[in-house]
Amino acid sequence: GAGVSQSPSNKVTEKGKDVELRCDPISGHTALYWYRQRLGQGLEFLIYFQGNSAPDKSGLPSDRFSAERTGESVSTLTIQRTQQEDSAVYLCASSLTLAEQYFGPGTRLTVT
Amino acid sequence: GIQVEQSPPDLILQEGANSTLRCNFSDSVNNLQWFHQNPWGQLINLFYIPSGTKQNGRLSATTVATERYSLLYISSSQTTDSGVYFCAVLTDSWGKLQFGAGTQVVVTP
Predict the structure, then answer these.
(1) Are A80 and A16 in contact (CB under 8 A)?
(2) Is the per-residue pLDDT at A1 higher than 60?
(3) Distances (CA, A) of B33 to A88, A109, B46, B79, B89
(4) pLDDT at B96
(5) Which residues of chain A make contact with B102, given a CB cutoff of 8 A?
(6) Do A105 and B42 touch (CB under 8 A)?
(7) Hey, are the CB atoms on B95 and A102 less than 8 Å from each other?
(8) A20/B contact by beta carbon, under 8 A
(9) Could you tell me if A77 and A67 are in contact, meaning their C-beta atoms sit under 8 angstroms apart?
(10) In the beta sheet, which residues pair with residue A32?
(11) Is B35–A42 a contact, with Cβ atoms under 8 angstroms apart?
(12) What's the distance, CA A18 to chain centroid?
């Protein structure tokens, strides 16, 4: 079946602009996660959704970052007033609750 | 929070060689996953292994949860095995994964 999809695959934006990143999880997966990967580093957790509620937002780096999810479907991660340090690959994963996580291909964000 | 340490940080292999990658974690975990990140950045699931041993082709993994480590074995390595191997542990009731820093593997022909 279809895996996790993300769009856009690449995004170049000017400092100060807002961006929206989209994630379509595997159908039927109740849990959805956003992670960030800076160049040459491991993944850092941003936010977790169970259904459309977000019980764990502990990883969001600042109030410029927000996310929402529609039901058990698509999620969007919004970064307002982007800064150069926001440049990274943003990865989305989905799973059944507390089960194996499957990752999308990521969105490469470059802030100039 | 829990610490996840992977070793070695870098590994260069001749095609056909075998190798072992290690993942140590500082506290008990609910589960553990191994991933391969290919040169295009895609994370590929290798193993979902809270304990015991699993094998998938030339790859196998063993987790000894009581001693807080996991091993990933690559046998008869191929150039397509190149990339970064990540270990990630499930640390809480929400399912958040804590990743190690990865092992960069380069397999030369």
Answers:
(1) no
(2) no
(3) 23, 26, 7, 23, 6
(4) 84
(5) 42
(6) yes
(7) no
(8) no
(9) yes
(10) A49, A94
(11) no
(12) 15
Instruction: Work out whether strand B83-90 and strand B103-108 pair parallel, antiparallel, or are unpaired.
Output: antiparallel
Output the tens digit of pLDDT for each of chain B's 109 residues.
889 999 999 999 999 999 999 999 998 888 999 999 988 889 999 999 999 999 999 999 999 999 999 999 999 999 999 999 999 998 777 778 999 999 999 999 9
Pair A97, B30: CB distance under 8 Å: no
Chain B positions touching A44 (Cβ under 8 A) are 99
- Residue B47: CA atoms inside 13 Å, Cβ hemisphere, count? 27
Q: Token pair 């990752």 is at which residue?
A: A103
C-alpha–C-alpha distance, residues A110 and B21, integer Å:
32
A42 neighbourhood in chain B, CB within 8 Å:
86, 99-102
* First-residue to last-residue Cα distance in chain B: 40
pLDDT tens for residues A31-59? 999 999 999 888 999 999 988 888 888 89
The b-or-e profile of A61-83 (16+ CB within 10 A means b, else e) is eeeebebebeebebbebebeebe
Closest residue in A to B93 (Cα–Cα): A98
CB A26 within 8 A of CB A4: yes
- A residues 29..68 contacting B (CB < 8 A): 31, 33, 35, 41-45, 48, 50, 55-56, 59
Q: How far apart are the first and last CA of chain A?
A: 37
